[in-house]
Structures are given as structure tokens and as C-alpha cells.
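Page 42, continued from yesterday. The earlier attempt failed because a stray header line got pasted into the input along with the sequence. Redoing it now with the clean sequence only.
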Amino acid sequence: MTQKLLLLAASLAVLAAAPAWANDRYAQRPPVIVDSSLTQPWINQLGGGGVRPAIYAPPRRVTGNQMGYYAPPQPRQQANSYRQPAARVERDGGALPGVYGAPQAAPRQAPVQQAAIRPNTPTGRMDPQFLPQTVSYETKEKAGTIVIDTNSRFLYLVQGNGQAMRYGVGVGKPGFEWAGEHRITRKAEWPTWHPPKEMVAREAAKGHFLPASMEGGPENPLGARAMYLGSTLYRIHGTNAPWTIGSAVSSGCIRMRNEDVTDLYSRVDVGTRVIVQ
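This time it went through. C-alpha cells are written below.
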């Protein structure tokens, strides 16, 4: 009898506890507490705290022997669009495969042009080195001799004592270079220009028609002064295009700025020896 009473009491206890288990899912649970080190970056982002979550930080730039260049996100390309080849970056003098979108290395500078090598065409302005000046000049030629260095585009008027007056000049273009020794046979101020027949025919073939002659003046290609060399058609003369000084653009004549040829004209006489080299 006692055992039956104990079993009945246990059954009643089980039945009384069952409703409590069914209602547990609706009971109010205690709040979940999250560590502030995990939540603070997100709270700062939403509240304008100025701190972005670490997940948005760009990849760290790697230095040293590792190649870790950060490539910013590229816009999505269309299926038929052309993708540029990957850039190449220079490091320690060697070429390494670059990352698409990485900044390219600065271009290497071109080698400096030698002073004795001059362009064949004018650059639009005259280099200041071609302005007249007194320079040291060792030569066996007598004072008063004119020496023209067509390679460096300088005319030297020998003064003796290891010095010379140096002027910048324009010289014959490719195919019209020449060298030799002559003397000044005539001098003229604001000379009249008579284009040679060969020049007239050559320019006519290009569609340029030259006049039979042109009186002296600022527009005249011979400029302010002319010094004729021997019995040739060559002259040392001025120009109406001073920006061509220092270039190889003439048909063989030696051209100077009007200011410079006027100065040289006043320093030399008919009979002066001229060496073109």
C-alpha cells in the first residue's frame, strides 16, 4: 500500500511540472552581454565617432624583399572591354611583375645631349650660349682670322693672346655642308638678295616660288650685313629668322643675328681669311 502511494505522488509531481517546461520558451531571458572591444567599432561608425571597423582598413603595404603593393578596387568591366596589361614596377634596378592598377615607376631620364651635337632644326628660341662673348681660344691662326666650327655652330674671330670673340651661327643643312678656306672679297650693308637658279628650281619643286631679287630690308633673308666668300655663292650674313641660330638649316651660307653680323662686319675688312671646318 505504501508503494502505491509513493508512485501516485511521483506521478502527480511529474504532471505538475510539465506545464512549466512548456512555458519556458515564452519566459523572459536574461540580456546577452557582448564585450565592448567587439561592439565599439560598429557603434563609432554609426554614431560618427570617426573610427572605422578594422575590417575596412586597406591591406598593409609590405616593404623589404616582399612584393606587396596595394591595388585599389577596380570598377567592374564589361565582358567585351579590353583590360590593360599589368604594369611593371622597378625595384633595386630590376624589373618585377607588377600588380594591375599599381602605380608605375617614374620614367628614366634621357641621356644629356653632348654640347658639340646640335639639332638640325630650330627649336623656336635661341640658346643663350650663342650670344657673342669673349672666350679662351688656343689656335695657331693669326689675330683677325675668322674660324667657323660648323659642328658646334660657333664663329670665332681670333684676337690673339689665347682669346677670341665667339658668335653663334646657323650652318648648312644636311646635304649642304661644306668646308674650306676663303677670303672676304666683298662687304655689303642691307644687301639685295638674288636667289641662285638652283635654289629657285629646288623651291619651285616644293611649290615655293622665290622672287628674282629682293631689296635689302628687315624681311630680306640676308639680313643687315653680308660678307661674300671668295668667288663662291656662300656668304656670312644676317637673317630675318634669328631663332634658327645654332641650327643646320641654310643652303650653305653662314647666318648670324643681325646685331652680331653688324658687330663682326665692323671688325673685319675685305681680304680677311675665313676658315670653315
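Notes: The domain at 130-276 is CATH 2.40.440.10 (L,D-transpeptidase catalytic domain-like).
Reminder to self: strip header lines before submitting.
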